[in-house]
Amino acid sequence: MLRPWHLSLALTRGKKSVSQQIVHAVIEDVRRGRLAPGFPLPGSRELGETLGINRKTVMDAYAELEAQGWVSTELRRGTFVAENLPQLAKVSVDKRPRASTIPLEPSFKLSRPEVTLAADLPPSKWLSFNDGAPEIRHVPIEAVARAYRNGLRSTLQLRRLGYGDPRGSEGLRSALAAMLTADRGLAAGSDNICLTRGSQMGIFLAAQTLINPGDTVVVETLSYPPAREAFRRVGAEIATVHIDDDGIDVEDLERVCRRKRVRAVYVTPHHHFPTTVCMTPERRMRLILLAAQFGFAIIEDDYEHEFHFSHQPMLPLASFDTAGHVIYIGSLSKLLSPSLRLGYVCAPRSLIDRMAGEVMMIDRQGDPAMEAAITELIEAGEIHRHTRKMLRHYIERRAKFADGLNAVLRGRARFNVPDGGLAFWVRFDGIDLKRLVARCREKQLHIQMPDAFSSTGQAVGALRLGFASLDVKELAAATARLGAALAETKR
Asked: Where are the alpha helices (DSSP H) in 268-381?
């Protein structure tokens, strides 16, 4: 059996024979949980070479361990920790103090309260209305695999597998800058780009470089929970403003700015998270004017720009910014797969350089081979083709989901078919959503509780139902389960 690591055993080199020391070391490691039942032990020749001893000594130790019932030997497979271990309490072993299993809690105090956000993941066979994840079953695997092979080969040939620029590879930054310039009107260069491991890291970097303890950061009354937490972790005071069908309430924002010195405003203007509304052009212009008047930064999270259905995607706030008010954050994770952790920040060069310094403190740099692969996928047009293909799927699924919801809700909830994005925002009237979600989970339908979206702690009377990761058949089944759960939930 191939084992990727050598097994280390602590031997005393004392009065006991080396064979006895091996016996006691294995028994002690079994007792403390380091060696679990069924764990494969190295062969006698391999362990002898690792410990610098004769193979016969190891064979004698294994024979003694097998006689005591601690290990079992299978012909042509090797030696394993026994599945049915002897009673530990009856075994006398070396009483010298040794490390036990890693304790549940450290012996020292931690610096701040723990992050309360946790991944709410469904069991693998359940259907799920997630918060807007993309479909991953149509990822062009062959093109991605070819790009990865080419990326690894090219970085090796160009000797770029060592330490590099914390902002990310020049090739990918240039490709992204070209895309932002042509498609989103930002007039960006490679020096304006810092690559990140997803958009959340971009938000974290913005918080680290902008916010001092006590600074005020404004978010909407309903907003993206991990972003709020990133600002709180650096000591920000969170202020909230209202959100309506036209986006952030700029009049409410101005009132907050006249009461407090606002350091930053976090927005998701293209497809607001979680309500999916698109900020109107008038409010976009007013927001930029307020940034100029009161001196705050706008952190624009454009997390799913490409997926707009009713008309061309609206240009980002950053495309109208000529004075450096906007920090633009984007992601490629929704285009291919959430596990492809690649996002970016586009901002003035001096801020990008500051963020690069923060990257040095977090993970030093990204993955140059992966970045080379994504560069190839962009320049070969693969990502653009895949995006257009998925857009057609999502348009169909959006229409089917709207029809299904209308059939099962029967006036007990309201929703607008979103112009873009990968989720619906469904508002329920007088329904106990906690009970409804529980009923759905009884039917193996996973829905995220909405209270985490609230920036004020108030209850939220709506659900964010992601539709994109389910095909048409799965959408029909999930919607039917939602309808059945709703019928069982009293007002």
From this structure: 281-294, 349-362, 368-379
